[in-house]
């Protein structure tokens, strides 16, 4: 099955396409474990700028490493808003067209504005249709490659339950502003889950179109402000930090009264983060996932719990971060070089 030319949204990916990428990721993982030097280099001679307007650790490094593993040449542009001609007033269109004119084969882009990835793809389709665009996060819009590694992690650990539609999935925290939740929810709806448990404050909800799609597929969802109310049900928990950078009104208040910031975070973490009470009531077989960074919402004491899969606990233990490397490597390979 042919991969999308641009990777922009979770809407582009159904279970069949994702399983092709997951299987390729497994092949690359096994080959890399045997001898990374002997990995195929299908991107040799290809130039891939990494344009990041927003801060990134995991997405940036895994994307960089993925290009290198496949033999390509990454061109890193971190903090593009300050360390490129954007500071001189250059538009997104001119930045994208410049990358194409400089013979880029693909662009991995993170931007602060929702919809910017689609805008960049439209520019490439008009002026350089041979160049691929990978959305590494566009504001509070979507994060399709994070979605890929999250579903890949679930697939590796609960494949049969995922494919049979037996999973109860809890999304805890920033339902309205988390691009990760938006992308994950879209694909989990396509795959078919038994139920969503949505945990957040009143009025902080998934976008209406996502909820409407769940209703269309007859997937029930429960909204609660009490993270302990249904603590025993979820097979998968996905958490996210408080996204203060997306809060326009609250952000302005905290600029005036910065001493309130620790209190705001602490209150959020106590209500929608991992706690000892929640840890004690979660299923013994549950997965505790987090896209990172964490800011107190996933305490370090949880790291040694075998249900925590966001970071490894040593060799041969599950890690979303490691899964992200192999998912992005496989996706790059299949998109730019085919099977």
UniProtKB/TrEMBL annotation:
The keyword RNA-binding does not apply. GO terms for biological process: 'de novo' UMP biosynthetic process; amino acid metabolic process. It comes from the Bacteria. Keywords: Transferase. One of its GO terms (molecular function) is amino acid binding. Residues 6-155 form the Aspartate/ornithine carbamoyltransferase carbamoyl-P binding domain. PROSITE patterns: CARBAMOYLTRANSFERASE. The keyword Transferase applies. Residues 168-333 form the Aspartate/ornithine carbamoyltransferase Asp/Orn-binding domain. Belongs to the aspartate/ornithine carbamoyltransferase superfamily. This is Uncharacterized protein. It comes from Candidatus Nealsonbacteria bacterium CG23_combo_of_CG06-09_8_20_14_all_39_25.
């Amino acid at each position: 099955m042919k991969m999308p030319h641009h990777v922009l949204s979770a809407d582009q990916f159904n279970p069949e396409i994702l399983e092709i990428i997951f299987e390729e990721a497994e092949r690359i993982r096994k080959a890399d474990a045997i001898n990374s030097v002997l990995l195929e280099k299908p991107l040799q001679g290809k130039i891939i700028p990494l344009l990041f307007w927003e801060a990134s650790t995991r997405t940036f490094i895994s994307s960089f490493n993925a290009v290198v593993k496949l033999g390509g040449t990454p061109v890193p542009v971190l903090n593009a808003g300050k360390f490129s001609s954007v500071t001189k007033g250059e538009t997104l269109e001119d930045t994208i067209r410049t990358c194409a004119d400089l013979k880029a084969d693909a662009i991995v882009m993170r931007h602060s504005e929702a919809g910017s990835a689609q805008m960049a793809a439209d520019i490439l389709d008009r002026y350089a249709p041979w160049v691929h665009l990978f959305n590494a996060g566009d504001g509070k819009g979507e994060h399709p490659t994070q979605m890929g590694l999250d579903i890949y992690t679930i697939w590796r650990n609960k494949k049969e339950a995922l494919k049979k539609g037996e999973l109860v999935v809890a999304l805890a925290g920033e339902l309205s502003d988390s691009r990760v939740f938006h992308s994950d929810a879209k694909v989990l709806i396509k795959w078919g889950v038994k139920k969503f448990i949505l945990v957040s404050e009143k009025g902080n909800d998934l976008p209406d179109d996502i909820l409407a799609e769940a209703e269309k597929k007859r997937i029930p969802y429960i909204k609660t402000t009490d993270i302990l109310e249904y603590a025993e049900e979820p097979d998968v928990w996905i958490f996210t930090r408080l996204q203060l950078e997306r809060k326009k009104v609250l952000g302005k208040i905290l600029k005036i009264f910065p001493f309130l910031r620790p209190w705001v975070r602490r209150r959020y973490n106590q209500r929608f983060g991992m706690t000892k009470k929640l840890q004690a009531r979660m299923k013994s077989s549950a997965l505790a996932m987090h896209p990172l960074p964490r800011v107190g919402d996933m305490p370090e004491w949880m790291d040694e719990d075998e249900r925590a899969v966001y970071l490894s606990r040593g060799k041969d233990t599950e890690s979303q971060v490691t899964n992200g490397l192999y998912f992005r490597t496989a996706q790059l390979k299949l998109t730019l070089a085919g099977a």
